[in-house]
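Quick question: what would this complex look like in 3D?
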Amino acid sequence: MSPTLETISLPHLPSSLPVHVALYRDVQNAPSLRQQLISGNSDFEYAFIDASMVLSRAHVSSAIFRAVNDYLNERLKSRNVHSEIVFSFSSTNNIADSFRKFGISDSTKDLLVVKVSVTPEITHDSVAAHLAQSIEGSPVPFNDETLWEIADVAKIKRAYKLGSLPSAPAGQVNGTGNSDKMRLENSIIGAIALRGAT
Amino acid sequence: MPEEAYIPPPLPGPFTNTTPPPTLLTQGAEAHLYKTIHLDSNTPAALKIRPSKPYRHPILDRRLTRQRILQEARCLVKLVREGVNVPAVLALDWEGQGGENGNGGAWLLMEWIEGPVVRVVFERWEAFIKASGASLSAEELQREEEKVRKLLRGIGSVVGGLHKAGVIHGDLTTSNLILRTEEVNAVPGESPTMQGDVVLIDFGLAGQSSSEEDRAVDLYVLERAFGSTHPRTEKFFEEVLEGYKDSYKGAAVTLKRLQDVRMRGRKRSMIG
């Protein structure tokens, strides 16, 4: 098992649909990765997420869960389950806007990559091998500490229109700072769950 | 009638994959509550399912189910944002499993709140007082009563926070309040701990409103529930209102309205 790619079997989702997640810092080739997406190169069918917009693992799981559940129920709003994962980070119904806010941009330095095994050919090894040769960056562990280091909390709050919530001081992981973080995280997860409800 | 084990309706959507399967906790007329696991770890979560009702017209059924589960989820998400103690919404599907096998059902996955419901805390306390109240010194009794008063003020302030956020619970009883506590298993016969945060649960009948009438009715329903379930704690109910009083700006007006509601009951207009 490559240590840089984590394969997760999300509770409640069929075990035939494992999810592969990798986190990179100091990514050098964001523009070319983004170009592959735009040109629709199917080898690059990934959810590429700007990791500065990600608060925690629970945040990521919620977006993945929402997208895969919609995929299983055949009600994707975008092209495939991977674009839907990017879209699922959003609290609004605007797909283009969700890509601008949460998707990879030319200036992305920290990148979260998600791939769902929608066909049996997509395995941990095949994804790991392809990412190793495609992404020019340093793999880091996909955990809450690293994500919190990367997160741009002010930007995240703006994206979810949660500007009025109290701010946990960066780096502080205990005391009231932690309960503020939980409140922000739970508010975001709720917004993801409610997207599209009219 | 032969005794048959109750078979709940089939689980909707993705929860047929869940291992171990969610366990049924309670079943009401509208919804089934299960205990299951969270998305990210081994922490527990609560799953509320509103099964479709086969006797309703399918279009009406879908619309009602969707409306009600969304109402509940919206209230919860709003309260989480406002920092009121309620379970967080983790995931939601208001359409449930559409089509194919027809066992649709909307569901709501929520944060698990650990602790006894306040009803149980008071029942334990009342049993304790009944059994050993006579042998307590005046001082001990006073300490016991102060414990209850403090919890009641805590209830008042969480209900105040709820109303401040513009939400009405609609079914405030001591069974819909959890005392979130790290209490080690309660010892029968001893006075239960009352340390912890009061968390509001079950927003199935909740709605958004800032009208003083609706708020007063919320309090009235709680007051009546107290009177009927906790005769020995009823006399302390004023402490709930004490805790409520300072929780938001309009609280005094609501309390004034509560007096009117007490006089006539919760149905405002019964004429014509």
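Answer marked as accepted. The interface with chain A takes residues 13-15, 17-18, 36-40, 70, 73-74, 76-77, 80-81, 83, 88-95, 97-98, 111 of chain B (CB under 8 Å).
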